[in-house]
TrEMBL record:
Residues binding [2Fe-2S] cluster: 32
UniProt: glutathione binding residues: 24, 61, 73, 86-87
Taxonomic lineage of the native organism: Bacteria, Pseudomonadati, Pseudomonadota, Gammaproteobacteria, Lysobacterales
Record-linked InterPro entries: Glutaredoxin, GRX_PICOT-like, Monothiol_GRX, Monothiol_GRX-rel, Thioredoxin-like_sf
Short name of one Pfam family: Glutaredoxin
MF (Gene Ontology): 2 iron, 2 sulfur cluster binding; disulfide oxidoreductase activity; metal ion binding
Keywords linked to the UniProt accession: 2Fe-2S, Iron, Iron-sulfur, Metal-binding, Redox-active center
Gene3D superfamilies in UniProt: Glutaredoxin
Protein name, UniProt field: Glutaredoxin
């Protein structure tokens, strides 16, 4: 079986930290409203996150949607598992579940 270097890079990014956010821009300078709102929700629950700016990495931007089977950005991964995009993250934030997921992920790290 041949390995796919870009999928290997994506997997390495996803597993590099308990909380990984693939986004447009950076937490300091988000380049879209969805990324901005996702970062705000994560910061509000004290998440220590690793972010990947997909605008600076066209290979990841092109291949992550196929890898994760999720078409849009941002994409939030916790403990290597796709949580979802902006809408799901905000729903989890409003229900209180995001805080618990982040706390558990950071405790386990």
């Amino acid at each position: 079986m041949s390995t796919n270097p870009i999928n290997d890079r994506i997997k390495a990014e996803i597993t590099s930290a308990p909380i990984v956010l693939f986004m447009k821009g950076t937490p300091q300078f988000p380049m879209c409203g969805f990324s901005s709102r996702t970062v705000q929700a994560l910061k509000a629950v004290g998440a220590q996150m690793h972010t990947v700016n997909v605008l600076e990495d066209p290979e990841i931007r092109a291949n992550l949607p196929r890898y994760s089977d999720w078409p849009t950005f941002p994409q939030l991964f916790i403990n290597g598992e796709l949580i979802g995009g902006c809408d799901i993250t905000l729903e989890l934030f409003e229900s209180g579940d995001l805080a618990a997921m982040v706390a558990d992920a950071q405790k386990a790290a």
